[in-house]
Amino acid sequence: MVLVSNAIPLVPGALPPTGLASVKLTINNVEIPIAAAATAGSHKDGSLRSVVVQFLYDVPTSGAAALLELGQPRTADIPRRPYREARSPSRFRPTRTT
After folding, report:
1. How many beta carbons lie within 10 A of that of residue 77, not counting itself?
2. Along the 98 residues of the chain, how does pLDDT read in single tens digits?
3. 3-state SS assignment for residue 21
4. Does pTM top 0.85 for this prediction?
5. Residue 11: strand pairing partners
6. What angle do CA 40, 45, 50 make, to 5 degrees?
7. Residue 87 carries which DSSP code?
8. Residues 6 or more apart in contact with residue 49 via CB below 8 angstroms
9. Which residues pair with 27 in a beta bridge?
10. Are 40 and 85 in contact (CB under 8 A)?
11. Taking Cα atoms as reference points, which of 1, 6, 17 lies closest to residue 57?
């Protein structure tokens, strides 16, 4: 298994700052435990600009199609791993932890 960590940009109004618990990931119709965190910045309406989603997955060489749903409560979490924000708010570098 590997830690998959990705920042996903959001359109204005898609996710309020209090909505991180309602970010859900499914792969092959199975909910995947995730950690979700807001990135720096927000839209003019106060909604989040982007969210970092992290999860552990045994990624096949062919890849995997995933569905990220907003507004759907998830039932499983993992501890969030630290990430370091790059200078540009749209780029993030995961921080390796041991």
Report:
1. 12
2. 889 999 999 999 999 999 999 999 999 899 999 999 999 899 999 999 999 999 999 988 988 889 999 998 899 888 777 665 544 444 445 555 44
3. helix
4. no
5. none
6. 35
7. S
8. 9, 10, 39, 40, 41, 42, 43, 89
9. 30, 66
10. yes
11. 1
